[in-house]
Amino acid sequence: MAKVSLRTWDERTQSPLFWLVTGLGVGMAKPAPGTWGSLLGLALGYGLIMLNVGVIELILLTAVLTVISSIAIDRIENTIGIHDAPEIIIDEIAGQWLALVPLLWLEPSLVLYGLAFVLFRFFDIIKPWPIGWLDKEVAGGFGVMVDDLVAGILSAISIIMLTYLGLLDGLY
Question: What is the value of pTM for the model shown?
Fold first, then answer.
């Protein structure tokens, strides 16, 4: 299927699935809907951290969001024939949450939130292996989600490595 816009789907505003996968419409923002989705994920993740959500809870919330979103994306793709439309940003939200996991055991700071955001966007845009491979090879709703989940995991690993190497000392 060709990559086109959800803007052409006439019944979009009546579909709860549309509102879910576009982050309540944030994915309709131009330019760079993925960046807007990542910012929404950052804000929601910050809120969860402020509510004292733990590592296990954040990972479980991300898993639940992934399952629900994969099903929703599958249904949208089957209904309108659009695969991985740019307005679908629920994958950025889930991936950004995984990028924030190290902040749950570090002293969270604006620098670390910013770093989690920048690293996630870097991996999501550049798509190094295995992210690019997953993006091309895994179909359906889970295929839309999985590359962003791995980008989030690589971002989290990067933050952990930078911390372990002492390269973030004094920044948080």
Answer: 0.94
8 Å CB contact between 171 and 152: no
With contact defined as beta carbons under 8 Å apart, do 86 and 3 qualify?
yes
Residue 20: CA count within 13 A, CB half-sphere: 17
pLDDT tens series, the chain, 172 aa: 444 578 888 888 899 999 999 999 999 999 999 999 999 999 999 999 999 999 999 999 999 999 999 999 999 999 888 888 999 999 999 999 999 999 999 988 999 999 999 999 999 999 999 999 999 999 999 999 999 999 999 999 999 999 999 999 887 7
Distances in Å between the alpha carbon of 91 and those of 2, 52, 67, 119, 159? 19, 23, 11, 15, 20
Per-domain residue ranges of the chain: 11-164
Q: What are the angstrom distances between the C-alpha of 42 and each of 16, 27, 80?
A: 23, 14, 29
CB contact at 8 A, 96 and 152: yes
Q: Which residue has the tokens 């994306």?
A: 73
Dihedral sign of CA atoms 53, 59, 64, 68 in order = positive
- Measured CA to CA, the distance from residue 97 to residue 124 in angstroms comes to 13
Indicate the SS3 state at residue 104.
Answer: helix
User: Rounded to whole angstroms, how far apart are CA atoms 152 and 134?
Assistant: 14
